[in-house]
Hints:
With 231 residues, this protein is α+β, with helices and mostly antiparallel strands. Helix content is 46%, strand content 16%.
Amino acid sequence: MYRERASRLPGAVVWTSNPSGDGGSGRVLPDGCMDLLWHDGRLLVAGPDTRAHPVGEPSAWAGVRFRPGTAPPLLGVPAHELRDSRVDLADLWPTADVRRASARVHAADHPAQGLEEVALRLAAEAAPPDPVLGRLVTALAAGRPVAAAADELGLGARQLHRRSLTAFGYGPKTLARILRLRRALALARAGVPFAETAARAGYADQPHLSREVRSLTGVPLRELVPPAPHA
């Protein structure tokens, strides 16, 4: 079973996932975020995904999901170096730093609580998040075109692409596609008909929505949004 809550770190989410007993497997959909993970006593980092990440046999996980663009300064690694990957924290940090973080997680009542403490400490020691990138995420999440958002922020195309690779792991157009997907799935899961979902989320039409869903997730829309049961 998956559960999440807002973190004390602004914009972040603390989550846990435990076996539900149904023996099924799933997939983690791209969301523009990076996560600090705990699994089977190990600390890992989930890089930004450009496609669905398959989940194998159910097992216990915990994580802190950072708001898009905020994790690289905290973790000390550009996002594009971790794109579509899951990496042991020991491959990114000095051994002593990993040992201290692991001890903090293991000392907590629950790994998720310990991960949140690690994230809060990292944020306290790092520079504040780049407000320009934060405004970019807000604009794209609301459906603003990339070019219009860049103009409003005073960023040229090359500068925007370079900063996006470091912060998000890919260019702004890919980030916009992923955020639009998240917007569409939220509408569809709330019961909005697919054709209306496509229009409200900014797709040309329902077939365009269907193509984008399959491209980014590898499955059709109806597999992600099952039909509502009849009364």
